[in-house]
Design a protein that fits this description.
This protein is an alpha+beta fold. The protein folds into three domains: 3-34 and 166-191, no CATH class; 38-163, Alpha-Beta Plaits; 199-230, no CATH class. The chain is built from nine helices and five strands. Strands 1, 2, 3, 4 and 5 form a five-stranded antiparallel sheet that branches. A hairpin with a 4-residue loop joins β2 (97-102) and β3 (107-114). The model has no long low-confidence stretch (mean pLDDT 83).
């Protein structure tokens, strides 16, 4: 089959694709709306070395990876729970926190997810504050030229909607529906490949040219029968 044949097939059965898109996109929208929204609050920590030389910056990058593990420790989680007065375990709190060192900018990104945007903000803000306090105490034991200053770049805001992102889900559902509809069309066409409906189908299966087609006499005779019925006089 040539490309124009496939285009003709898809145009003829376009309603299948449209129906599949409506079903999948609508389902994605409904599922997104019934899910409990999760909010994310983010804060950034500056990690500044006392000396701006290249060697010290490499040391700081190593520190940043260690800092990330410290922020995600059970000990840190326990301090945050006690200060914010949360009724959860340290492991439950750690499941809400994500730490991502950004070594190229000497920043540490800390995210906190929660069903309540205010709690998400309080968790991430408190985590950053406690970590900065502990780090300052640890750095007092270092020489001034070897110290690393950790500070909060900006305070955290109430969490914004992190998931579900219904627009993305609907778009993904629509794309899946288009693909599913196209597959259904190809399967139907394959199942009906041996059915002959037109002269073109006959030529394609037999390899011979069609010289004539017998018309549907039933369809041609129907108007004549209807006219004769109307012309017959009605009997009382």
């Amino acid at each position: 089959m040539q490309l124009r044949d496939y285009l003709r097939i898809f145009v003829r059965r376009a309603w299948i694709i449209a129906l599949a898109v409506v079903i999948t996109a609508g389902s994605a929208f409904v599922v997104s709306k019934v899910q409990t929204p999760v909010y994310r609050s983010t804060i950034y920590l500056n990690v500044i070395p006392a000396r701006p030389d290249w060697g010290m910056q490499q040391v700081v990058k190593g520190f940043m990876r260690n800092f990330a593990r410290t922020i995600q420790s059970r000990q840190m989680a326990t301090k945050v729970i006690n200060r914010v007065q949360l009724d959860i375990t340290p492991d439950e709190l750690l499941s809400k926190i994500t730490v991502s060192p950004i070594e190229s900018d000497l920043l540490i990104r800390v995210d906190a997810d929660d069903y309540d945007p205010i709690i998400a903000r309080d968790v991430v803000q408190t985590t950053a504050e406690i970590f900065v306090e502990d780090t300052k105490v640890q750095m007092l034991e270092q020489d001034k030229q070897d110290r690393v200053d950790v500070s909060i770049l900006d305070y955290a805001l109430p969490g914004g909607l992190h998931k579900p992102k219904w627009k993305i889900n609907v778009l993904a559902g629509a794309m899946f529906g288009m693909l599913a509809g196209a597959v259904v069309i190809l399967i139907l066409e394959w199942l009906e490949a041996d059915i002959i409906r037109t002269s073109a189908d006959m030529e394609r299966h037999s390899g011979l040219a069609v010289l004539g087609v017998i018309p549907d006499t039933t369809a041609l005779a129907r108007p004549i029968r209807d006219r004769r019925r109307r012309e017959q006089p009605s009997t009382a």
